């Protein structure tokens, strides 16, 4: 865990937090979000017990126009689920419950996309995450561009699945 924290803190945290200011919005730079963020902002539930990582991801997503709900544990996450987020970003190693078990609990009542963002990167861990109901899996440390691209892709597919998106956005 110290390795991950060290890679996100220091100069890297400044890079992530200053990303829009230096390079423009992710969507403008890479064209991934054309039409996706127009109108109502999507709400994302971020479940992460590491305050530093939570802050970085919160800033990154907020700067892209997302409304971010935050939870440090499973109990808080289930309370925040009442706000009907459009996407859940979930760590596996939480203090009160395994993210795997939390994913299964969420899946009992919701089809919301779930992206595991975790330090656990073995094939077994990934397979267990997908079998629990995850839609995507990203290992820490991560590139902010990749996280944003995955978030955008998950939201686009979910909108199409729910019948509220435009199939021309798949390209």
List its salient traits.
171 residues; alpha/beta; 13% strand; globular; disordered N terminus
pLDDT < 50 stretches: 1-40
Question: Cα-atom Rg, whole angstroms?
Answer: 15 Å
Write down the secondary-structure element order.
HHHHEHEHEHEHEH
Counted by DSSP, the helix tally is 9
Strand content: 5-15%
Report the average pLDDT across residues. Answer: 81
Q: Indicate the percent of residues in helices.
A: 40-55%
Largest sheet: 5 strands, parallel
**Outline type:** globular
The spatial strand order of the largest sheet comes to 2-1-3-4-5
Structural class: alpha/beta
Give the beta-strand count: 5
Separation, N- and C-terminal Cα atoms: 37 Å
Can you tell me about this structure?
The protein has helices at 2-8, 11-17, 19-23, 26-30, 51-63, 74-80, 99-109, 123-132, 144-162; strands spanning 43-47, 67-71, 87-90, 114-118, 136-139. Strands 2-1-3-4-5 form a five-stranded parallel β-sheet, sandwiched between helices. Strand 4 (114-118), helix 8 (123-132) and strand 5 (136-139) form a beta-alpha-beta unit. With 171 residues, the chain is an alpha/beta fold. It is built from nine helices and five strands. It is globular, with a radius of gyration of 15 Å.
